[in-house]
Amino acid sequence: MAAPLQQDRPWLVVGLGNPGPGYAATRHNVGQMVLDELASRGGLTFKTHKTNATVAEGRLTPGGPRLVLAKPNTYMNVSGGPVSQLLRFYSLDPSRLIVVHDELDIPFDTIRLKHGGGHGGHNGVRDVIAATGSGDFTRVRVGVGRPPGSSAAADHVLKAFSAAERKNLPILVSDAADAVEEITSAGLTAAQNRFHAR
């Protein structure tokens, strides 16, 4: 009898980024762009939450999985606190957590999905692992590519997408949102088969 109860436990989907309008359009905030797309699909509204995050809850489709979409109000490097609090608030373990974040080591316009592992040098993911005490969660890694030449990676992720990238950005964000939906409805392996084959 436990399986149906497990199935109806929500998924916590966290989009990493930095707070405030000055960062909203930067590469580092692509995870939060994906959450905005998911909320739009389900007609969900973000509201302030006691866990120092803004949260939108609901199902994107009738009978679909329950999602808690959350954007930490903290800066990227200290994202873990709100994520840890959200897991406790909703009585979830990290296996029900999906973190959506930018990834320098993946070319722009590419998505990679994985469960578990290290932080790969991503400070937001590093802090989530430190605060939750576990790397046992799913990551939707949205490729933003490395900067050209000798430009610093830290500067690159805090800049807005280029004009050429902005043309394809809606497709990238939509694909990443599709990946979240696929993971929560059909499982990680099915999502990997769909998105890694491209």
In brief:
The protein is an alpha/beta fold and 198 residues long. Helix content is 39%, strand content 20%.
Question: What does this protein structure show overall?
Answer:
The protein is α/β, with parallel strands linked by helices and 198 residues long. The protein has one domain (9-195): Peptidyl-tRNA hydrolase (Rossmann fold). Helices cover 39% and strands 20% of the residues. A seven-stranded mixed beta sheet has the order 2-3-4-1-5-7-6, sandwiched between helices. Strand 3 and strand 4 form a beta hairpin. Helix 2 crosses helix 6 (163-186). The model is unreliable at 1-5 (pLDDT under 50).
Keywords:
Rossmann fold; 7-stranded mixed β-sheet; globular; single chain; alpha/beta; 198 residues
Distance between the termini: 38 Å
Q: Give the % helix.
A: 25-40%
Across the major sheet, the strand order is 2-3-4-1-5-7-6
What's the CATH class label?
Alpha Beta
* CATH architecture designation: 3-Layer(aba) Sandwich
Helix-strand string: HEHEEEHEEHEHHH
CATH topology: Rossmann fold
Biggest sheet descriptor: 7 strands, mixed
Shape: globular
Q: Number of helical segments?
A: 7
Task: Estimate the strand proportion.
Answer: 15-25%
Spatial extent as radius of gyration = 16 Å
